[in-house]
Design a protein that fits this description.
Two copies of one chain form a homodimer. Chain A is an alpha/beta fold. Chain A has two domains: 266 residues, 3-Layer(aba) Sandwich (Aldehyde Dehydrogenase, Chain A, domain 1); 181 residues, Aldehyde Dehydrogenase, Chain A, domain 2, CATH 3.40.309.10. Chain A is 35% helix and 18% strand. The first copy, chain A, is built from 14 helices and 23 strands. In chain A, the strands form six sheets. Chain A has a seven-stranded mixed beta sheet with strand order 16-17-18-15-14-19-20, sandwiched between helices. In chain A, strand 9, helix 5 and strand 10 form a beta-alpha-beta unit. The termini of chain A are far apart. Chains A and B meet through helix 4, strand 7, strand 8, helix 8 and helix 14 of A and helix 4, strand 7, strand 8, helix 8 and helix 14 of B. Strand 21 of chain A pairs parallel with strand 20 of chain B.
Amino acid sequence: MSTQTTTLSGRSIIAGHEVAGSAGTTRGIDPATNAELEPSYSLIDEAQLAGATAAAEDAAASFGALDPETHAGFLERIAENIEAVGPEIVARAGAETGLPEPRLNGELARTTGQLRLFAKVVRQGDHRGVRIEPALPGRTPLPRPDLRQRRIPLGPVAVFGASNFPLAFSTAGGDTASALAAGCPVVFKAHNAHPGTGEIVGRAVTDAVRECGLHPGVFSLVYGPGASIGQALVKDPAIRAVGFTGSRAAGTSLMAAAAARPEPIPVYAEMSSVNPVFVLEGALRGDVEALARGYVTSLTGSSGQLCTAPGLLFAPAGEAGEAFVVAVERALADAAGQTMLTPGIAGAWQEGVEALGAQQGVDVVARGGQGPTENAPAPVVFESDVPTFRANPVLQEEIFGAASLVVRYASAEELADAARSMEGQLTATLHLAEEDHRTESALLPVLERKAGRILANGWPTGVDVGDAMVHGGPFPATSDSRTTSVGTLAIERFLRPVAYQNIPDALLPAPVQQANPWRLNRRVDGALQLADAPTQEPAPEGDRA
Amino acid sequence: MSTQTTTLSGRSIIAGHEVAGSAGTTRGIDPATNAELEPSYSLIDEAQLAGATAAAEDAAASFGALDPETHAGFLERIAENIEAVGPEIVARAGAETGLPEPRLNGELARTTGQLRLFAKVVRQGDHRGVRIEPALPGRTPLPRPDLRQRRIPLGPVAVFGASNFPLAFSTAGGDTASALAAGCPVVFKAHNAHPGTGEIVGRAVTDAVRECGLHPGVFSLVYGPGASIGQALVKDPAIRAVGFTGSRAAGTSLMAAAAARPEPIPVYAEMSSVNPVFVLEGALRGDVEALARGYVTSLTGSSGQLCTAPGLLFAPAGEAGEAFVVAVERALADAAGQTMLTPGIAGAWQEGVEALGAQQGVDVVARGGQGPTENAPAPVVFESDVPTFRANPVLQEEIFGAASLVVRYASAEELADAARSMEGQLTATLHLAEEDHRTESALLPVLERKAGRILANGWPTGVDVGDAMVHGGPFPATSDSRTTSVGTLAIERFLRPVAYQNIPDALLPAPVQQANPWRLNRRVDGALQLADAPTQEPAPEGDRA
């Protein structure tokens, strides 16, 4: 009810201090009205940026060595601090992004939920990857030394906020949460499309750092002039890894900068995916109207600005496929355009739609209505066929927003060939019935090579944040198919193994000490040993009988 | 005794077939005599290479889906086939590399041992990384879908043989073994310094592929014209990852080629390390002569051509340090030069030694004797101090071979500063006594950031192949500090996670099927469940009382 009112400072927060930038200013814009929002945000220059990275470097050792309870408590404190200003965050994010309140409330809950999930991961401790091989002095031909392995944080991480998730992929979003959980300080480059949202959340994180008595360099939030400060951040020698969600052009430019450093560093960029949906014959013997509505709902939610929006759908040629397309037309007719994130994104969407529509063999088959606000174009669905799709790479390009292409296929072989011809994807979705299992069995190994997540009879939007999620996939979906940016596995991106050989126990870090003070699961001589496993000792006498 | 005699063909083996190359020839050279060895090896061109990568791509699906028993049996069969021609391999490798027979016998045992270790890993199955979150239809605000994660092989891997380990880091060495264990076909680029050794081992692998009934594209061995075929291999679209051990120049050039591909791929290059040894004050109150002998033995073994040879040692200024240097001088005087791997490597060593000796503030303090063969220069130890070391990057450069630099430090602070100023390393070694624990406690967090393995009171050469080993480290030690090239963790380099959402059980791959037919350990709802854990069900009545 009573929302707190933070006076926005329009400044970066570097290691706990507000810093006014000297490299120009920027402002949030309400995309529903194109009105500029207060305050203006000053942009920092490279010298000011170096202050943030130096503080992060300075914080790395103490932060990386935190005990699990303090560490987990810090992540939970961030979540609490965010919740304390939740309504304010949602209101500001709504003004800056045009995203509807229920979506932002959901995203806020996801953001705090994933911080708490990573707190659980930190307490549980399996990410520390402890492996122990005790000394075998009598082994022949050579004795075995005592060897103990654990994973340590990489060091300071640069995180770039995404335009389309002002909370869950932004200031305290998945990249920040997983990097902090790994024990890496974070220098966060705010997205200039939602600077005020970034500041409110950044203060919540900064407060948590202070309240938990941590080194202030653990977190900085910087506003900078677009690409130039991003390049400077990735090139900074103190930075050891990069988390990014955004466009393919921006992501590949960060990858190139990281690879060209004197000491190259890993970049985890989540970039571009059209998320193909494969509708098999059997699925169209069910409720075709419901299937079409599901497609349109998944496509138009958040104005199509989700990384996993279904930008491509394969439907059979012939009558059943035709009935599906007609159903899509009906379903889309009821859908009105929603405000897009920025005028620039709406403009790029328009250009993408015009370019796709201008391709030979591509027709518009369905269109929704224009939305009532600025930047709320009518969603659109195109249609083509597999030969056209395979011959023209423009048909594979992501159009960020509510536009999708239905590609009609003539046979299971044509469908598999189309799948094989595709670039890497975040997701691949199958709609199928029992009778389609043979087609699907041939398709599944192809899709495994192409995508990070494979779904059946659902829609790819709505990414569950948990232990088994993969939000990743081969390039260009991401820069590194070995990882995920959503879910607990994301913490592994920011860790590396170190082995300790014959180090006296008193000098060993806690995770590999013989007494196992943190009660970690460990792999001993190649076999997992659970810390909380029932002991193998016989129960005391009194417990028998 | 009776060694089989394989007639060497001088040809590449592409997917089971001998292929004569059309891009010139090369020959092995006996470095002890500089004599050319028979036969000459024909080098393949890029079109022939494409045959190998296409076959690997073709083999990827069936090989990646092998059941654990067949898969492990294949790795064991390679080991058996290698053992069957063991004496022949050792004889040829000795002629091609100048390495002594006991060293090569040890390396052969390591090679077959690590193949069998990976067979165990494949049977055990933890590398598949299974995570399961069963559906929660009643979860609010949204139901949870059924989510199952496993890791799948990346696809065909290019492996480059190392000059200094003609067996354990070559044709069927650690990179090949771990890639095959992950389920990735391998295209192996033979090292032109030991082509005959490569062919004998390559036949053993090829035979195993055939004997196990696998797709012949699972393994190819190619001879090619140095750098150009290597670049072509890394750029080939069928190749999904690269394993390499060798020089910093060659490694960084492969990294650049991989990053410049339309679809970048990971490169695991193990390159350059001087493996600093930190001798603390207390260690010199013990047996200084033994310490010096240990250093010289570790430095001169295999003519100093080990990735982990101690190329740099920090000793205290003052009397105790002086006594150590004198002891090194005595120990090295007894050491004769041993044949180096190739005339080119011996020449590069000579240049490196001359360059280091020419630096201001660097003096020779100890020298061994020239060896009796060609290419067997006298090992040498230089001396300098921390200020000189910190001011001149030449003093940090690896000299591949038996040359090392003793750097004298004036204080614990100076030592820590020197450690902080260093590049990434494979190893860092401490010699210390109880009284040094305070100095060491300050040093350890610095060394963790710099090295993949930290040892106490031993020597870095002699890398144990096991579960807890890390043979890796920050750049330039390797291209990717998140991994190891030795030990079971190496398999993780060639895997990526895939999530399955609501896929019918009948369509799921075995590792994530509900019935767990491969009896894998799994992470269920975030907690590890061991396949062989005692069941939690109450014991039957008869067992109580």
